[in-house]
């Protein structure tokens, strides 16, 4: 995201950080952001509290307001205990690292017990793998391929994914967001 520039910048350059009613982000990775239209709509529907604002104004013929930079939900949304099984969440659980060689490029996901041998696409059988390792392992069992994942695949909690997400701060953080975000600078991705 480009730095928020001048008052003449398009409203699209002014997303709002969305916090739960307890003032914690709904998500760290991806960071819970709404575009300006969704944010203004939520304000008018009285679904959020405005916590902080940009200097950027939006206008209609009868109304003007500063765009919110941070909003909190008025009703607490209880986070799910376990996240959905998605490719992105597998990568996040595995910290965007090949579980065989440690590479961080060309990530795919690998079935530890190959699908051709009855392996299922589930948390406890899929790991992040770089394309070269995935090709090298092919449809072989780990013992035959002499390739074992560094971490046994498991079903993570939402809390674990949030913790891992804090290892990967976004390229841009508006100063009004910083009091609500906790990036763990001591941990390495």
Q: Overall 3D geometry?
A: elongated
Secondary-structure class: alpha+beta
What is the radius of gyration?
A: 21 Å
The total beta strand count reads 6
Largest sheet: 4 strands, mixed
Quaternary state reads single chain
The percentage helix is 10-25%
Major sheet: order of its strands? Answer: 2-1-4-3
Task: Measure the end-to-end span.
Answer: 21 Å
Q: Order of helices and strands, N to C? A: EEHEEHEEHHH
* Average pLDDT for all residues: 89
Name the poorly predicted regions.
1-7, 184-189
Task: Describe how the helices and strands are arranged.
Layout: E1 16-19, E2 33-34, H1 36-44, E3 48-60, E4 63-73, H2 87-93, E5 107-111, E6 126-130, H3 131-137, H4 142-145, H5 158-165
Parallel strand pairs: 1-4
Antiparallel strand pairs: 1-2, 3-4, 5-6
Please provide a written account of the structure.
By secondary structure, the protein is α+β, with helices and mostly antiparallel strands. It is 19% helix and 21% strand. It contains 5 helices and 6 strands. The chain has helices at residues 36-44, 87-93, 131-137, 142-145, 158-165, and strands spanning 16-19, 33-34, 48-60, 63-73, 107-111, 126-130. The strands form 2 sheets. Strands 2-1-4-3 form a 4-stranded mixed sheet. A two-stranded antiparallel sheet has the order 5-6. A hairpin with a 2-residue loop joins strand 3 and strand 4 (63-73). The longest helix is centred in the N-terminal third of the chain and has 9 residues, at 36-44. The chain is elongated, with a radius of gyration of 21 Å. The two termini are 21 Å apart. Mean pLDDT is 89; it is low at 1-7 and 184-189.
């Amino acid at each position: 995201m480009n730095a928020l520039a001048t008052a003449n910048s398009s409203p699209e350059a002014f997303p709002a950080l969305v916090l739960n009613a307890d003032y914690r982000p709904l998500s760290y990775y991806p960071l819970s952001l709404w575009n300006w239209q969704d944010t203004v709509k939520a304000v008018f529907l009285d679904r959020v509290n405005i916590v902080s604002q940009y200097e950027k104004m939006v206008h209609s013929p009868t109304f003007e307001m500063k765009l919110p930079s941070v909003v909190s939900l008025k009703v607490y949304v209880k986070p799910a205990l376990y996240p959905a099984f998605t490719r992105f969440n597998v990568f996040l659980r595995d910290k965007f690292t090949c579980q065989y060689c440690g590479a961080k490029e060309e990530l795919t996901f690998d079935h530890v017990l190959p699908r051709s041998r009855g392996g299922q696409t589930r948390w406890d059988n899929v790991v992040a793998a770089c394309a070269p390792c995935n090709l090298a392992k092919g449809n072989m069992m780990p013992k035959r391929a002499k390739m074992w994942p560094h971490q046994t695949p498991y079903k993570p909690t939402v809390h674990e994914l949030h913790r891992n997400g804090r290892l990967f701060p976004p390229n841009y953080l508006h100063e009004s967001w910083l009091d609500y975000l906790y990036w763990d600078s001591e941990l390495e991705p």
